[in-house]
Structure to design on (462 residues):
C-alpha cells in the first residue's frame, strides 16, 4: 500500500508556476528575517473529508483527500538551542523559545499559531527520544484558511514534525510520523482521531483515500469520471481547540461506548471507542444502531444519571472517562452521537462501494450519501451551523450532494458537482450567499469557493 516509505525529498528547482513564486517569496522573507537563506522547505497540505465525519476518534474509517491549499515552511537548523518562528501573514506574531525543556501550554482561549508548531516539534522529540534538539529558524506561508475545516492546524503540526525530523537527521515512515502528529496535537487539549495527519502524509495525487486505523492503512480509491468537488467556506470560524464542543462530542461517544458495554455485561471501563466495542460484540452497523435504540434513551443524560448507570462517583467518572475540559459539563447526548457514528461509519464503506461500482447513477448515489451525512451531522451530532446549512440548500438542484466537512460549527462545505455545472454553482454561491455576507466584503472570492482535486502528501524540498 506504500504507507511505510518516508516523505519524499524533492528538488526545489522543479517547483514551478504560482507555487514556485510562493516558495521564492517565502525564501526572500526568511532571508530578510534571519539574515541567511533557508536550508530546506517543507510542504504539508490541507485536506477535505469527502465523507466520514467525527468517526476517526471512534476507531472508524474515513474518506479524505488532500487539497492544493497548504502550509509551507522555510527552515534552517542552527546551533543555538532556540526555536524562532515568523509568519508571512503579519496578523500572526513572531515567536521564540528555548529548545531546552520544551513544553506546550494548554491555553484557556484561542490557541496561538506557534503552539501548533511546538506540538509538532515536541511530538518528534518525545517519540524519537532526542535528548538535545537542533535549534530552528522557521518562516511560514499558509494558503489554508484558518478555522475553515480544511485542517490548517494539523498541517502546521505535520509540517513542524517533518521539519524537526529532517533538521535532526531522523527518518520515520509516513504512517509512523502521522501517528506521532495525531498524538502531538493532544498537547493543546484536542482529543482528535488521526484522519488529518494520516491524509497529510499518505495522500497521493489523483486519488482519494479510504483510511483505516489501528493499524493505520490507506487504500487508494479512484473517483469516478465526472466527479468534481467544490469547497465553499461559510466564513464562520470555529477553532476546535478553543472550546469544549469538539471534546464534548468525543466524550459523549466514549460515554455511549461505556453505557452500551455495561449493558452487555462487559468490563465497561476498558472500552473508550465505539469501534472497539463493535469489534468485541462482532455486530453489523445496523445491529449496533438497534442496540443504541434499545439500550439508550433519547432524552439528555445528566452526569448524575450516567454515574448511577455505571456505578461510579462523579470524581471517578472524571478520572476514568472525561477529559479535563469536559468535566464541567452536566448533560450529555450519547444516544444521538452514537446513532450518528454508526450510520456515518456505514456510509463511508457505502461511498467507496459506489465509487468502485460504476454505473450511470454513480454520481447521484455518491451525492445522496453526502446529503445523508450532512443531515446526520446537523441533527444527530449537532455540529453544523446555519451558514453551512444555507450553502447546502443553495447546492440543491445544481450539485449531486453537499455536506459540511471538517469539525463543523463553521468552516467549509464540500459539494459533488457535475463537471459542466461547476461555474454555474460557484456563480450561484457568489450571488446568493457571499454577496449577502458582510464578512465577504473585500475578499478574493476565488479563495473561499473553488473546485479541488486530490493532491499529494507532505514533502521536503531542497
Amino acid at each position: 500500500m506504500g504507507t511505510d516509505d518516508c516523505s519524499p525529498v524533492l528538488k526545489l528547482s522543479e517547483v514551478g508556476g504560482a507555487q514556485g513564486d510562493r516558495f521564492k517569496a517565502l525564501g526572500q522573507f526568511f532571508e530578510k528575517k534571519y539574515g541567511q537563506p533557508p536550508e530546506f522547505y517543507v510542504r504539508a497540505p490541507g485536506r477535505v473529508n469527502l465523507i466520514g465525519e467525527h468517526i476517526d476518534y471512534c476507531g472508524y474509517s474515513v474518506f479524505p483527500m488532500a487539497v492544493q491549499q497548504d502550509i509551507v515552511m522555510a527552515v534552517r537548523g542552527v546551533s543555538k538551542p532556540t526555536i524562532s518562528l515568523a509568519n508571512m501573514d503579519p496578523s500572526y506574531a513572531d515567536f521564540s523559545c528555548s529548545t531546552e525543556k520544551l513544553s506546550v501550554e494548554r491555553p484557556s482561549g484561542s490557541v496561538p499559531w506557534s503552539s501548533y508548531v511546538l506540538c509538532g516539534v515536541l511530538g518528534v522529540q518525545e517519540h524519537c527520544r532526542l535528548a538535545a534538539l537542533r535549534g530552528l529558524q522557521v518562516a511560514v506561508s499558509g494558503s489554508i484558511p484558518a478555522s475553515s475545516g480544511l485542517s490548517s492546524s494539523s498541517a502546521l503540526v505535520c509540517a513542524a514534525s517533518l521539519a524537526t525530523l529532517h533538521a535532526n537527521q531522523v527518518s520515520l515512515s509516513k504512517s509512523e510520523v502521522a501517528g506521532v502528529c495525531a498524538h502531538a496535537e493532544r498537547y493543546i487539549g484536542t482529543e482528535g482521531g488521526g484522519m488529518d495527519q494520516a491524509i497529510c502524509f499518505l495522500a497521493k495525487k489523483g486519488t482519494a483515500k479510504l483510511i483505516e486505523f489501528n493499524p493505520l492503512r490507506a487504500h487508494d480509491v479512484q473517483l469516478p469520471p465526472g466527479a468534481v468537488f467544490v469547497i465553499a467556506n461559510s466564513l464562520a470560524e470555529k477553532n476546535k481547540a478553543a472550546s469544549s464542543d469538539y471534546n464534548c462530542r468525543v466524550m459523549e461517544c466514549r460515554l455511549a461506548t461505556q453505557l452500551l458495554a455495561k449493558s452487555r455485561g462487559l468490563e465497561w471501563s476498558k472500552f473508550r471507542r465505539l469501534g472497539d466495542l463493535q469489534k468485541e460484540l462482532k455486530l453489523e452497523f445496523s445491529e449496533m444502531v438497534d442496540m443504541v435504540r434499545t439500550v439508550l434513551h433519547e432524552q439528555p443524560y445528566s452526569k448524575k444519571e450516567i454515574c448511577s448507570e455505571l456505578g461510579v462517583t462523579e470524581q471517578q467518572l472524571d478520572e476514568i472517562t472525561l477529559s479535563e475540559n469536559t468535566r464541567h459539563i452536566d448533560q450529555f447526548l450519547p444516544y444521538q452521537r452514537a446513532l450518528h457514528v454508526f450510520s456515518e461509519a456505514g456510509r463511508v464503506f457505502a461511498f467507496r462501494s459506489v465509487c468502485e461500482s460504476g454505473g450511470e447513477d454513480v454520481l447521484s448515489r455518491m451525492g445522496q450519501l453526502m446529503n445523508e451525512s450532512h443531515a446526520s451531522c446537523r441533527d444527530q451530532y449537532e455540529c453544523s451551523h446555519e451558514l453551512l446549512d444555507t450553502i447546502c440548500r443553495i447546492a440543491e438542484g445544481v450539485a449531486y450532494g453537499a455536506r459540511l466537512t471538517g469539525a463543523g460549527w463553521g468552516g467549509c462545505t464540500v459539494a459533488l458537482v457535475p463537471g459542466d455545472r461547476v461555474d454555474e454553482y460557484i456563480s450561484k454561491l457568489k450571488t446568493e450567499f457571499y454577496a449577502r455576507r458582510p464578512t465577504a466584503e473585500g475578499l478574493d472570492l476565488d479563495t473561499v469557493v473553488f473546485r479541488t482535486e486530490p493532491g499529494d502528501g507532505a514533502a521536503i524540498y531542497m
Remarks:
- The longest helix spans residues 334-357.
- Residues 46 and 338 are 28 Å apart (CA to CA).
